[in-house]
Fold:
Amino acid sequence: MKEHYKCPNCRKNLNIGNSIVLLVRKNKTERGIIHLHTELGNYTTETSSDFDVKDGDHVCFMCPVCHFDISIKKNNKLARLIRIDKYGDETTIIISGIMGEKCTYEIKNRKVIMSYGEQMYKYTNPEWYLDI
Structure:
């Protein structure tokens, strides 16, 4: 079984091939589609051609199925996904909602088990993942 990413609300699969497909919103009015790479620590992204986003832009990620905002309430600069690995183990994946910011956290049983990216030390306060 290949890894799957799911919405934390409706739990529908969000990946197609090597892409996680999400809706993305910037400035409350601009909307588009974004593909994130499924490999943890790979920060390759692709957006719809009519959606202009630059490094440093704060975006809101949403589920394309139920339109749920996957931002973390205590820190809306972070968003969460559910990941099911090839063995069927479930973890929570935290990604940055700041475009170009390279930080990803894999959480299991309320503990960070892996961190990825050049800015992974930016969010060191454990409070943000205790209520996910």
